[in-house]
Design brief:
The chain is mainly α. It is about 45% helix and about 10% strand. Helix 1 runs antiparallel to helix 3 and helix 4 packs across helix 5. It is globular. The two termini are about 30 Å apart. It binds manganese (II) ion. The site of manganese (II) ion (MN) has 7 residues, from helix 1.
């Protein structure tokens, strides 16, 4: 198989009580696995089988919808698991903290604007913190399993933090209360990984 489900870098219950165990089990083991399986089916026998998921995303307009939906789903979730972790949260430091202050005025302002992007993304999608072509940070959101790497994205850049706001990401624990899920997310963000991704993007 060209693409594989990455192992979760912590236990399914590690993000309790902010992200519940059953949601993590279904989200990683069922939803992400389905994106991987359907992506492999969609690229079988094509050159995309041997390409990186990043390169596929960057030229996604050249591919049929099943590759866009499932390739995006694979990329987005692979990032999502790594930017969370047990015993995380708190605030960013160093270059990342400076970049957030430069772009948004303060960490609190950043959190407010990011939460707004997550809350107002209609239906299913993602909120993102990205590094733009100018090297500066920006907040954006995408529908469905699109992402800012994609050439069809309204706002393009390299994602360094993403929040899944599909109902499957929170409904079991939070039901219709998406804002509560977004608030809880700050308790599990792995800022060291976000900072690493900023360095790599620049
Ligand atoms: Mn999801």
């Amino acid at each position: 198989m060209a693409f594989q489900l990455p192992a979760l870098p912590y236990e399914h219950n590690a993000l309790e009580p902010h992200v519940d165990t059953l949601t993590m089990q279904i989200h990683h083991g069922k939803h992400h696995q389905a994106y991987v399986t359907n992506l492999n089916n969609a690229v079988a026998g094509t050159p995309a089988e041997s390409m990186s998921i990043e390169d596929i995303c960057k030229n996604i307009s050249q591919y049929p919808m099943p590759v866009r939906n499932n390739g995006g789903g694979h990329y987005n979730h692979s990032l999502f698991w790594t930017i969370m972790g047990p015993g995380k949260g708190g605030a960013p430091a160093g270059e990342l903290a400076a970049a957030i202050d430069a772009a948004f005025g303060s960490f609190d302002n950043f959190k407010t604007q990011f939460a707004q992007a997550a809350a107002t993304r209609f239906g299913s999608g993602w909120a993102w913190l990205i590094v733009g072509a100018d090297g500066k940070l920006a907040i954006t959101s995408t529908p469905n399993q699109d992402n800012p790497l994609m050439d069809i994205a309204e706002v393009k850049g390299t994602p360094i933090l993403g929040l899944d706001v599909w109902e499957h990401a929170y409904y079991l624990h939070y039901q219709n209360r998406r804002p509560d899920y977004v608030t809880a997310f700050w308790n599990v963000v792995n800022w060291d990984e976000v900072a690493r991704r900023l360095q790599a993007a620049r």
